Inverse folding.
């Protein structure tokens, strides 16, 4: 008989929370699957299932079951169930408050010679010419101006 590396022993509060998650069905599917895996692996329940049994019942892989058990043993209850929020965005914002202010100031200024008013594409080109940003699309300029309810005439 294979040895169990991580024993899952849920307390009453954790078990009730997991039962609540699985019975309501309003949590993300990944959270519900993890809750079911923990409940099936609980040694304080009737009889804990093996990794293969849990994988077969919940239509997942044994690796997933083992990863959930390992996560519970090493990181704890909350870290196992819920996904960690990012602290920083994957790509830093190109347009900061200072850049927004410069775009708005440029849009309020007189248009170039030969034009009656600024267009989004003209603004985007001028922003790059002035070195405010390395590159910018006209839709980004539009988004900045929309936030301030500024309308090009």
């Amino acid at each position: 008989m294979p040895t169990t590396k991580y024993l899952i022993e849920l307390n009453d509060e954790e078990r009730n929370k997991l039962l609540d998650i699985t019975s309501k069905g309003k949590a993300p599917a990944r959270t519900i699957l993890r809750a079911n895996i923990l409940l099936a692996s609980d040694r304080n329940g009737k009889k804990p299932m093996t990794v293969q049994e849990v994988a077969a019942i919940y239509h997942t892989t044994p690796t997933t079951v083992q990863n959930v058990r390992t996560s519970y043993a090493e990181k704890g209850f909350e870290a196992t169930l819920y996904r960690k929020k990012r602290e920083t965005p994957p790509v830093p914002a190109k347009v900061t408050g200072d850049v927004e202010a410069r775009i708005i100031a440029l849009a309020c200024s007189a248009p170039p010679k030969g034009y009656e008013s600024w267009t989004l594409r003209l603004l985007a080109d001028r922003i790059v010419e002035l070195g405010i940003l390395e590159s910018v699309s006209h839709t980004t300029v539009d988004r900045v101006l929309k936030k301030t309810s500024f309308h090009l005439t």
